[in-house]
C-alpha cells in the first residue's frame, strides 16, 4: 500500500487478504525474496491450484505482484514477490475509510 490513507474498499481488500493463515504464510515466504509458483508450493506444502487462489487474492489487494518470465528452456514461469507495504490500523484510519466505502458498504470479497 502507498502512503495515502486507504479507501474503505482498499482497507477491506487488504484486511480480507491478510485474514487467512495461508496468505500470511505466503506473504512471510515472499518477504524472504521472490519465488516461482512451483517452488513456493513446495516450500509451503500447498497444492498449486490452492496457492494460485491465495496469490490472486493477495495480488488483487495489492500485496503481491506476479510476473510471467520466459525461462532459458523456453517455458514460461510465473514469479511472485511481495510489494512493500505498511498499514497503520487505527480508529482514525477506519473512520476516514468508512465514508469512501462503495455503495452497500461491503467489500467485493465479503461473505
From TrEMBL:
Ranges where the HTH arsR-type domain occurs: 13-103
Gene3D superfamilies linked to this entry: Winged helix-like DNA-binding domain superfamily/Winged helix DNA-binding domain
Matches recorded under InterPro entries: ArsR-like_HTH (IPR011991), HTH_ArsR_DNA-bd_dom (IPR001845), HTH_MetalResp_TranReg (IPR051081), WH-like_DNA-bd_sf (IPR036388), WH_DNA-bd_sf (IPR036390)
Keyword Zinc carried by entry: no
Pfam families in the cross-refs: HTH_5
Keywords: DNA-binding, Transcription, Transcription regulation
SUPFAM superfamilies with a match to the protein in the record: Winged helix' DNA-binding domain
GO molecular function, one term: DNA binding
Keyword RNA-binding found: no
UniProt-recorded name of the protein: ArsR family transcriptional regulator
Species of provenance: Micromonospora globbae
Amino acid at each position: 500500500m502507498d502512503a495515502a490513507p486507504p479507501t474503505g474498499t482498499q482497507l477491506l481488500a487488504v484486511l480480507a487478504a491478510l485474514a487467512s493463515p495461508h496468505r500470511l504464510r505466503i506473504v512471510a515466504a515472499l518477504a524472504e525474496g521472490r519465488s516461482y509458483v512451483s517452488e513456493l508450493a513446495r516450500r509451503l506444502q500447498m497444492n498449486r491450484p490452492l496457492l494460485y487462489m491465495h496469490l490472486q487474492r493477495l495480488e488483487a489487494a495489492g500485496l503481491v505482484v506476479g510476473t510471467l518470465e520466459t525461462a532459458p528452456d523456453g517455458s514460461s514461469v510465473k514469479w511472485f514477490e511481495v510489494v512493500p507495504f505498511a498499514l497503520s490500523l487505527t480508529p482514525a484510519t477506519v473512520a476516514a475509510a468508512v465514508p469512501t466505502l462503495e455503495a452497500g458498504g461491503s467489500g467485493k470479497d465479503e461473505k
